[in-house]
Amino acid sequence: MKKRLTVYLSLVAGMALLCLGIGYLNSAQAQSTPPPPGSYTLTCTNITFTGTPGKTPLTLSATCKKANGGSQQTTLKYDIANCNGTLKWAPNGC
Fold this sequence. Notes:
Elements: H1 2-30, E1 44-50, E2 58-65, E3 71-78, E4 80-83, E5 86-89
Antiparallel strand pairs: 1-2, 2-3, 4-5
């Protein structure tokens, strides 16, 4: 009887952890930063935007078509900063 109870409690604990993990993944996806708009979205696929604004560097990644019809994976560090009252693209700060 004691062994059955241990197995049952282990299963319940495992299911609880699984549910917590799924909930965490869903909340992380819901809070992801959407990629910025732009014409690149017409010719690029697999677009991802990683990082947290103000906390970690933002990186835009995509697979983009080339003029010769091929494609390549490319990335761009993305940060717009207030540099003494002027907005600037500043991947390394002002």
